[in-house]
Amino acid sequence: MGIEALASALGTMRVALEEGVLTLTLDRPDRLNAFTTRMGEEWLEVLDAIDADDAVRAVIVTGAGRAFCAGADLAAGGATFDPGAGGEGASGAGQRVGTRNAAGAGDPGRASRRAARDWGGRVTLRLFACRKPLIAAVNGAAVGVGVTSILPMDVRLASETARFGFVFTRRGIVPEACSSWFLPRVVGISQAMQWVATGRVFDAREALAGGLVSEVLAPDALLPRAREIAREIAEHTSGVSVAIARQMMWQMLGASHPMEAHRLDSAAMHYMGARADSREGVTSFLEKRPPVFPMQVSRDFPDGLPFVPEPPYES
Questions:
Q1: Whole-prediction pTM value?
Q2: Residue spans of beta strands (DSSP E) within the chain
């Protein structure tokens, strides 16, 4: 299903495409855009549509109303994160799905633990695998899964009114959504542990100082700045080059030696150097004109090469 067709079916978010830039707005303002199972399902559907739609060159993610995402919806009360209680929380929902899909009898508890998948993690793994650049425009509270979900995004901007919190230890749970992998790589282990161990909520200036966001802007300047960055990507770059570069950069965060990067760079350069976008990029530069890149991500992204991730969000 394409982006336009999907838009009318969404219930927890809105999407709008203009000049190559898709703005995705989390849209449960009466619940501060809190995360539910349905939101997780819609995230996966939208990301699949984004990757398949060559009209989408960059994505901005923001929230409706005064929050970005206030974390898991706690409407189920104390049982929110209990996999056997049917709560709608980010972890509870994922575990419930995982338990339902667990194979084998004998020890149901063990099977459930093995198969348990938190919904926040399924979303962040899909964000990690996305072929389009992602810009978080954090307009308000980003707490719990609301903040862990922005970690695999490529550019993170914050409004002066934004607040952040890795509040898991204050709720008697633990970091989720693959944040134990992403957060130390984004901000460093010491800063990550300070925020996680205290579980306190902090402001945008502290997020900037700690490296969680790259810019703090006045509320009315947040989306214009995000659009400025997104348009620069959409108007001046090869979509296939950006898609490959995104995977190269993220995957090398886990590399053990620069030789892994050398092999990756060599494979990617060999692939793109022999193709039309490379020729157009050089020719347009020499002719002093804007490039018109002919390759398309949906058709020309190099499936099967070593820098293309498998979809672990479905494993």
A1: 0.88
A2: 13-18, 21-26, 58-63, 67-69, 134-138, 141-143, 155-159, 163-165, 201-203, 215-217
